[in-house]
Structure formats: C-alpha cells, structure tokens
Amino acid sequence: MIREGLYFCECKGRTVLLDILADRYFLLPDDHSPAFRRYVREEPLLDHDATALEYLRSKDLLSYDAACLRTCDGMREITRPSREFAGQETMPNIVAGLHCLIAQWIAARQVRRRPLAGIIKSLRGGYRRATPENLELALRKVVGGLAWSSGLIDQLNQCLPRSIAFHRVCLASGIPSTLVFGVTIDPFSAHCWVQMDDLLLSDRLERVRIFTPIMAL
C-alpha cells in the first residue's frame, strides 16, 4: 500500500503526489511512474517493476509495515464539477457573511501555524449538522455570505484558507460539501475549491476545470 498521508493523481501523463505529512507536492520520476500505476491499480506487474517499487519503498512512498497501511483514499475517483452555483440568485446574508469572514480569519491563521495534516484531521472530525429541508435556500445563504465576505478580505493567493473556511461554514449549515485539492503542471500550480456532488460552490468552472483533483475531504 502507499503510506499514510500520501495522495496522487495523473496529470498530463505525469504522476503527481501530495504528501500532507510533509506539506509538499512532487512529481514521481517518469521511469518509476508506470510501475507505481500498475501497483496501485492492482494490474499485473512486469519483471522490471520490482526494482522501481523497491526504490519507491526506500523513499517511504510504499510500505510493507502493516501498522502503516491504510485504505488508499488516493485511489478513489473524485467527482469533477460540471455545474456551478455562481450566477444563480444568492441571498446577501450578513450573518452567513460574518461566519465566512471569521472562519477565513481562523483558517488563515491555522494555515500559517499548523501542518496541513493537522488541519485535514480537524476537518474530518468536524461537526456536521443535519441537512436542512430547504437545501437550495441554505446554499443561497452561504454562497451569498461567501461573496459578501470576499469583498472585505484580500483574496490573492488565499484559495486554501478561503476554501477551508467555506467548507466549514457549509458543514455547519448542513450542506454536504466536499473540499477538493487539484493540481496542474507545465507550469505547476495547485488550487482548492468546495463543491457538492458535481455542483461547484466556491469558484467558477472555467478556473477549476484546468486542475486535476488529487485529494477530497
């Protein structure tokens, strides 16, 4: 199995990995990628794959230690958004906007001071309110609140705290949202956003569609 805290995706023919324990993205060497892909897909291995897999184990990407094994979240398919909530009628809601504002301030502070793995652990164990009967109304409120708060904070290079904050507000409002991390290469860039199933909540499709999802919470 791949070791705990490691996620991956295939982007433009390259294998990109996200190591949340080390707070870094990196590319797998091209001569080791085919063996890695066959291994995680449980496809028949070739004779020379053993050398590549042993190299990956020596780099702590694979583990034979049963205590380190986990269900491989990095292998599950992540739904790509095909619709966006932007452009639909929202409800400028000061209460929801203040929640987004405070949540983003807290998230920005955590991103500066805490490792990504700790933030992700808190999100997975966070409080989730029951889905409201009028989900459409709840969506209009929180998306309107995000739009209102975005005008009060500099959003340059703030996609991570902004998305973490909005994801938390959604869960607290009973919206079954998903926080997605994505990457692109040539040049390399990372981005994150919030969606519900295939409905994009926190961004625009024309921006998100260039990124390949690598991890979702």
Structure in words:
This protein is α+β, with helices and mostly antiparallel strands. 37% of the residues lie in helices and 18% in strands. The strands form two sheets. Strands 4-7-6-5-8 form a five-stranded mixed sheet, with helices on one face. It has a three-stranded antiparallel sheet with strand order 1-2-3, with no helix packed on it. Strand 1 and strand 2 form a beta hairpin. Helix 3 packs across helix 5 and helix 3 packs across helix 6. The two termini are 20 Å apart. The relative contact order is 0.17. The mean pLDDT is 84.
> Main beta sheet: strand number and arrangement?
5 strands, mixed
Using DSSP, what is the number of strands?
A: 8
Shape: elongated
Strand content: 15-25%
Output the radius of gyration.
19 Å
- Strand arrangement, major sheet: 4-7-6-5-8
Average pLDDT reading = 84
Uncertain segments: none
Query: What is the N-to-C succession of helices and strands?
Result: EEEHHEHHHHEEEHE
Task: Please state the structural category.
Answer: alpha+beta
Distance between the termini: 20 Å
Range of helix content? 25-40%
